[in-house]
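Sharing a chain and its predicted structure for anyone who wants a worked example. Both blocks are below, sequence first, tokens second.
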Amino acid sequence: MRLIAAILVGLVLGAGSGAGLGYWRFARIAATNLSGLAEGNSEGARLPQPVAEVPHLEHDFGTLSLAATGEHRFIIRNAGTAPLRLEAGETSCKCTVSRIEQPEVPPGGETAVLVRWKGLDEPGPYRQNAVILTNDPGRPRIILSLTGKMIVAVQLKPAELVFSQIASTQPTVGQVRLYAYQRPSIDISGWQTGNNATKGQFECRWEPLSKAMLGEEPDALAGQLIEVTIKPGLPSGPFEQTIRLTTDDPAAPAIDLPIRGYVVSDISVAGPGWNAEHNLLELGTIDKHKGLRRNILLVARGPFREQVRFELAEARPAFVRCQIGTPKAINNGAAYQTPVTIEIPKDSPAVSFAGPQTSALGRLVLRTNHPNVPEIRILLSLTIEE
């Protein structure tokens, strides 16, 4: 019995000792493998790598003229331990990478990237970008920026003179300013008109801008105040003219000033369907079995407003009737209104006087006793249908 117990104890102790030895051997192998893996990772982290450094990512050109071009040299350094490879990427529409002097930069070396830029077509601030692609894992893209402000060499403000309504019997004056942005002075040596038919109706003079006026325009270095006078006598209706100024600025030796407007005589027309710009009364489409009556007003101003009278001199088509009423003072006598009734009688013939050419329109011609406005022409647009 004692022998059997001793044998059992020996077996248990032997099994435990074997298991313990096995575990010790496994733990030793695992520790050895993990240690080797850690050493391998450390070696991978120490592999040579390029590192891109750019001292300045942005360059400000300052103020440039419209359509000017510029070029800037950016420096890119390799602060790593492996060669740095560079390649041109995408750019803004006005920006190009003209040259990478050294596409592969050795460790500790540097290269220049030339970025060329073309000016915008209108004044104002700008920002253009160029992208450089690299093999630096931490910086695969480098964005280089060019900034500044575009200005014109000279500029008129406003760009044109517009006269909404001017009297044909009185002089009218308008002003514009000519600013210079690149030179400390600008002089005007002469002027001429583009429309010879009315050139005698315009005068032009100028003088240097005051300091206060010049200070109202940012970046302007010099300027002239231009005054245009329209003399009495332009025919009523719309007009256009261009004054060409000659300057001593090489960037703008000739500057065109457009002028447009509308001349209102001492006598004007008002009422439904009246188009003052084209001197046209639109009567539209008329049923011949109904006819049409339209009331308008003739408004007289100026020194002869009380004495002005009207009479029908011509009607086209001939069946158009025109009844002229009695003048009446308005605005405390500042103007006089004369009512006029235009009638297309019933059963008038089916015709069309709708243009578009002036010769294809109808018309009324009213004779007046005004010394400066002997007649009033009213164009008629109408179509009579069955």
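Comments welcome. The chain has three domains: 52-151, 154-264, 267-385.
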